[in-house]
Amino acid sequence: MNQFEFDQLLEKYLNGECTPEEIAFVEQWSENMLSMATSPLSVSEQQLMETQLWEKIQQTVGIKPFRWKPWALAASIVLLIGLGIKWYTWQDSPEHLIRESIASSNWGVIDLTNHSTKVQKLTLEDGSEVQLNPNSTISYPEHFGQKTRTVYLKGEAFFSIKRNPAKPFVVHTGELVTEVLGTSFTIKSYENAKAIEVLVRTGKVSVYERTKAENTRKNGVILTPNQKVIFEKESKKIIPSLVEEPVVIVPPVQPTQLIFEDAQLSQVLQRLKESYMIDFEIESDAFEHCVFTGDINDLSLHTQLNLVCKAVNASYEQRGTVIFLYGSGCK
Fold it and tell me: Does this model's pTM top 0.85?
């Protein structure tokens, strides 16, 4: 059998068209290749070859969405070996982790790429909703496993997750993992970008770096509404911050809740904290007797802060996930 004939055989295997004898031959060849594996590739070689493999698999399956069955997953491993990557160099990659968990449950994987110019909405098996941005890809199981609900994202998407305390929802984006029980959040994870962003709208989100060792302390943070995190791919730094335009998380029961008359500054900031779930700190005692009068309903947080600060002769700045007020105070 020459190389061309062998390539045709692999293609038949990937398409599920092999006879039992051909399947046995390909699987025996796979086992022999594994037994001859001697030395791992370098990190850069692994990344390059993983990219080439993923592109080749996508070219093979054609137009998305495509349902992967267990035999196709096995075939992709064989194709991986044919490309020259040793199994143990790939087994820790996010793509493999997802497919390994799905293959063990005997369900297929759905790969969906948004080739349009508009956000595409989809509903997962558990009722969770995903808004997939253009030029973004999500891989998810036709049926979730018993312990977790795991998906893989390349690009950007907004998730609204159905709450299930017994089965966390996990999103893999390269080296960053986002884990929730039930919440809504946005993830931006583009391949050519230098960083990954996770922005929380509601609930709490655990974001941490994916590591091989199970017992090591994870590099991660817990995010709450109106908070975001930036994960720098090169330095592995996780930087918590606030979203660009915070929104009201707990709407006032009555509109008059954000109408003040000679209210202490601390009272005003407490109301804003309850509405946005953002912490505020006053740095000086000079504001102890400062009061504010005004209606700041239906305004953005930054506009509200500008009006309050102008009234009490203060300025504000954001440090991480906290907003600090400073200045000479009222006179």
Answer: no
